[in-house]
Each structure stands twice: as C-alpha cells, then as structure tokens.
Amino acid sequence: MKIIVILFILTLKIEASSNSFILEDNFDPTVDKISHATTSFGLYYVFRYFEKSKLESSIFSFTIGLSYEIYQIYDPFEEEYFRGLSLHDIFYNLSGITCALILDSIVKKSNKRFSSFFWKENSSALSFPNLQENQ
C-alpha cells in the first residue's frame, strides 16, 4: 500500500519533460483515462479472485498498466500524436487500483461483521439471534 501511495505522489509531481516519448497530456477524464482506471480496477480484482494478496494484486495491476504504456511508445499502429508514454494515464491506473483497494477493505470489513452476526464461532449452523426457536 505504501508503494502505491509513493508512486501516486511521484506521478503527481512529475511533469512531462522535453523527451519525445513522454506525451503532453492533461487530467481531463476522457474515455481513454476512464478506461485506464477501470481496467486497473478490474485487473486488481482478477488477481484477488486468484487469491493473490492485496499487495501482489496492486503490483501486478500496476505492472500491466505500465507495460502497456511502454508498449505504446513503440506501437506501429498508434497515431503519431498518441505514440508515447502518458504520465496522466499512469495516474489513472493508480487511481483505479487505489479505488479497488479501498473497496476491497470495505467489503472485507462488512463481510466479517455479517458472518460474525450469523455464524456462531464454534458451530457450522446459522444462528438468527432475533428469532425465537418456537415459532
């Protein structure tokens, strides 16, 4: 989690340099930016589905997003204006992963409360505390 926060802050601080492979871009939520965020969000949950830890899921999702950005530098089918690395796209990748982490934490907490309410600690039977036994 700390790694993601550090990368998030660094992404905010870095501005496009004069290198030709870093694109001049903005934070406007275009279809491309939303796609980056939702794809990273979805990738995080794909890895969680396969029982990876939160940290592993975050790193794998970020690595895939970064790999795609690097691929776009050399993509022969990409239009010349869009060929390069967008730091803003990386920011949106990180924001998708961050939202997934937050949602994952919320769901995990609510699942613990739900299961502790209905399941007795040393039993495999459901327990409904508000229902009387002789109804």
SSE series: HHHH
How is the biggest beta sheet arranged?
none
Strand content: under 5%
Total domains:
1
Unreliable spans are 14-19
Overall mean pLDDT score? 75
Termini gap:
50 Å
How many DSSP E strands? 0
The count of helical stretches stands at 4
Class of secondary structure makeup: mainly alpha
The proportion of residues forming helix, as a percent range, comes to 55-70%
Shape: elongated
Radius of gyration computed on alpha carbons = 21 Å
Structural key phrases:
135 residues, single chain, mainly alpha, 62% helix
Describe the structure.
The protein is 62% helix and 0% strand. With 135 residues, the protein is mainly alpha-helical. α1 runs antiparallel to α4, α2 packs across α4 and α3 (54-74) packs antiparallel against α4 (87-118). The longest helix has 32 residues, at 87-118. It starts with a helix and ends in a 17-residue tail after the last helix. The relative contact order is 0.16. The model is unreliable at 14-19 (pLDDT under 50).
Topology, please?
Layout: H1 2-13, H2 31-49, H3 54-74, H4 87-118
Brief rundown of the structure:
This protein is mostly helical and 135 residues long.
